Amino acid sequence: MNTFALEIWYDEGRICTLYTVRWVTDDDDTASETDRFFDTYTIPEHPLKEKALQLFRLITESIGNRYGATNDFFDRIVNRAQELPPKPKQRVEEIKDLGINFPLRLFCYRVTENIVILFNGGIKESQATQDSKNLSMMFYEAQTFVKKIEEALRSEMIEISNDGRYLQNFDGTTDIIL
C-alpha cells in the first residue's frame, strides 16, 4: 500500500500554513510532490519558469501571508481536490495578474482558511484538466491524497492544532503518515 507523509512546506506566512505530501519510500531523500512541481518548472531554461514563479508568489505571499486560503483562491474544484491558480475574475489583484489562460495547474486541498495542502501538477493542455495528458496522473493522485486526508480528519486520526495553523496526529505528534 502506498503511504505518504504530510509535511510543512511553508509556514512563514502570517495567515496560512502550507503543507505538502511526500511518498514514503526507502529513500529518505525523496522530494515532496510540491517541490517536484516547482523543481520541474523553475529551472533556468524552462519556458514556463516565470509562470511557475508567479504561481509560487501567489501561494506563498498572497495566500500564505496576505489573505489566507479564502474562497477567492479556491474556485477550481475538481472532484475532491482544488486547482491553483483560481479563475481570474476575482477581486484580488494578484489573481487578475495571472490572466485567463494561465498554463500551469497545481492541485491542492484547502483544509481551512489557515491550512492548505499542496500536491503536484503540470501543464494544462486541454479544456478539462482530466483530459490533459500532462495532468491526468497528477489529477488521480490528488484525488487519492484528498480522500485519505479527509478520512483521517473525519476519523480524528489527524486534527487541527489549537491555534488553527497546523495539522497533528490525534496524540499531538506532528509526524503524519497516511
Short description, anyone?
This protein has 4 helices and 9 strands; from the N terminus they run E-E-H-H-E-E-H-E-E-H-E-E-E. The chain is α+β, with helices and mostly antiparallel strands and 178 residues long.
Descriptive keywords:
178 residues; alpha+beta; seven-stranded mixed beta sheet; two-stranded antiparallel ribbon; 4 helices; 9 strands; 29% helix
Verbal overview:
- By secondary structure, the protein is of the alpha+beta class.
- Helices cover 29% and strands 26% of the residues.
- It is built from four helices and nine strands.
- It has helices at 33-41, 49-67, 93-96, 136-154, and strands spanning 4-10, 17-23, 77-78, 81-84, 104-112, 115-123, 158-160, 167-169, 176-177.
- The strands form two sheets. A seven-stranded mixed sheet has the order 3-4-5-6-2-1-9. The chain has a two-stranded antiparallel ribbon with strand order 7-8.
- It is globular.
Helix-strand layout with pairing:
Layout: E1 4-10, E2 17-23, H1 33-41, H2 49-67, E3 77-78, E4 81-84, H3 93-96, E5 104-112, E6 115-123, H4 136-154, E7 158-160, E8 167-169, E9 176-177
Parallel strand pairs: 2-6
Antiparallel strand pairs: 1-2, 1-9, 3-4, 4-5, 5-6, 7-8
Unreliable runs: none
Classification by helices and strands: alpha+beta
Q: What is the makeup of the main sheet?
A: 7 strands, mixed
Report Rg.
Answer: 16 Å
Query: In sequence order, what are the helices and strands, one letter per element?
Result: EEHHEEHEEHEEE
Described by the principal axes of the CA atoms, the overall outline is globular
What proportion strand?
25-35%
Quantity of strands, as a count: 9
Instruction: State the strand order across the main sheet.
Output: 3-4-5-6-2-1-9
Helix share, percent: 25-40%
- In whole angstroms, how far apart are the ends? 10 Å
Tally of helical runs: 4
Mean pLDDT: 91
